[in-house]
């Protein structure tokens, strides 16, 4: 088993990824290609390079440092310094990720995405906020990317988190062998399980994979009685219809035991910058963020089936509780 995996971020004080204040650990690497992905930096399993245009002063140091001629201005760097328009371009298919340009940039405009971390280092960092967990019922949420894509590392991380008496959530897309998911859930308090679409063809069209295995795993998970929050990212034009939510509510209501709540997560576009930093086109760039009020009717479809349902997935019952926490 690998001693470390690539982490894109350890995000503190999250309030939407399980109960209370949580520290989210984002692993890098995911088998799905969801078009609305809000963390595109977690999709690839290898390190990547961010270029943050707004921090770049066009000094040209990275161009001179690059041994592969993978950063190209259309004009020489000396002239480019006078330019106010963007000239800097990373030619990604020439780049071998040596990261020499990152060391050369004095302005923080270039950044490595994905740092290797051991289980011990991750948990030491997570434990820094233990007082906040104790007061709010929070803890660690293992997310991604997809934790099951690093099955053995994730299993040991979760196991050791429980050994440190942390409250643990696993955030998964459910796209893995059942035996893998089963080995992970043994060490968690709550599973946060993503459900994107009921229809296999629609699912494949927008995520790159069919959903049969995901729905089968959700059913098996529910049968175990493991507390599970089903999280549905609601994307305009994909799964925002009454027909979809009626079918999803029926599916979940018929599952056994474990499903304790449904979170409807309205589409937002806060991640646009990240696509630009990675040099990627975001196909949903022009789709407007969804007003949560439009999810009141779908939420009632789940509530009418007896399913506790939130809009936004807050881990606090009220904002007062969050402030007290
Ligand atoms: S990571 Fe290396 S090869 Fe890639 S652009 Fe930077 S210096 Fe060039
Ligand atoms: S070294 Fe940094 S600031 Fe200078 S051109 Fe490259 S990215 Fe921009």
Structure description:
Helix 10 runs parallel beside helix 12. The model has no long low-confidence stretch (mean pLDDT about 90). The strands form two sheets. Strands 5-1-2-6-7-8-9-10-11 form a nine-stranded mixed sheet. The chain has a two-stranded antiparallel ribbon with strand order 3-4. The protein starts with a strand and ends with a helix. The protein has about 325 residues and is of the alpha/beta class. It is about 30% helix and about 20% strand. It has helices at about 60-65, 75-80, 100-105, 120-125, 130-135, 150-165, 180-185, 200-205, 210-225, 240-255, 270-275, 295-305, 320-325; strands at about 5-15, 20-25, 50, 110-115, 115-120, 140-145, 170, 190-195, 230-235, 260-265, 310. The chain is built from 13 helices and eleven strands. Helix 10 (about 240-255) links the parallel strand 9 (about 230-235) and strand 10 (about 260-265). It has two domains: about 5-45 and about 115-325, TIM Barrel (Alpha-Beta Barrel); about 50-115, Alpha-Beta Plaits. One iron/sulfur cluster binds next to helix 1.
């Amino acid at each position: 088993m690998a001693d470390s995996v690539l982490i894109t971020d350890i995000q503190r004080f999250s309030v939407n990824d399980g109960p209370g204040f949580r520290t989210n650990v984002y692993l890098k690497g995911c088998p799905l290609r969801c078009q609305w992905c809000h963390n595109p930096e977690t999709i690839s399993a290898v390190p990547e390079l961010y270029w943050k245009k707004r921090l770049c002063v066009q000094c040209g140091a990275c161009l001179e440092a690059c041994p592969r001629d993978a950063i190209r201005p259309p004009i020489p760097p000396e002239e480019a310094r006078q330019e106010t328009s963007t000239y800097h371009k990373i030619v990604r298919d020439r780049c071998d990720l040596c990261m020499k340009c990152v060391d050369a940039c004095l302005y923080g405009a270039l950044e490595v995405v994905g740092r290797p971390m051991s289980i011990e280092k991750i948990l030491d960092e997570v434990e820094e906020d233990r007082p906040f967990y104790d007061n709010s019922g929070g803890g660690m949420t293992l997310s991604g990317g997809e934790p099951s894509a690093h099955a053995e590392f994730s299993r040991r991380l979760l196991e050791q988190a429980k050994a440190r008496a942390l409250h643990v959530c696993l955030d998964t897309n459910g796209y893995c062998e059942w035996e893998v998911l089963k080995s992970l859930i043994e060490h968690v308090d709550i599973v946060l399980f993503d459900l994107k679409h009921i229809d296999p063809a629609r699912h494949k069209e927008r995520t790159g994979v069919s959903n049969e295995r995901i729905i089968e795993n959700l059913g098996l998970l529910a049968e175990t009685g493991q507390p599970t929050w089903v999280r549905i990212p609601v994307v305009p034009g994909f799964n925002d219809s009454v027909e979809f939510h009626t079918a999803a509510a029926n599916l979940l209501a018929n599952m056994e035991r474990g499903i304790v709540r449904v979170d409807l997560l309205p589409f937002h576009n806060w991640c646009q910058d990240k696509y630009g930093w990675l040099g990627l086109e975001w196909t949903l760039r022009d789709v407007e963020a969804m007003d949560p009020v439009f999810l009141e009717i779908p939420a009632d479809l789940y509530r009418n089936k007896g399913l506790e349902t939130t809009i936004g997935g807050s881990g606090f019952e009220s904002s007062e509780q969050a402030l007290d926490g």
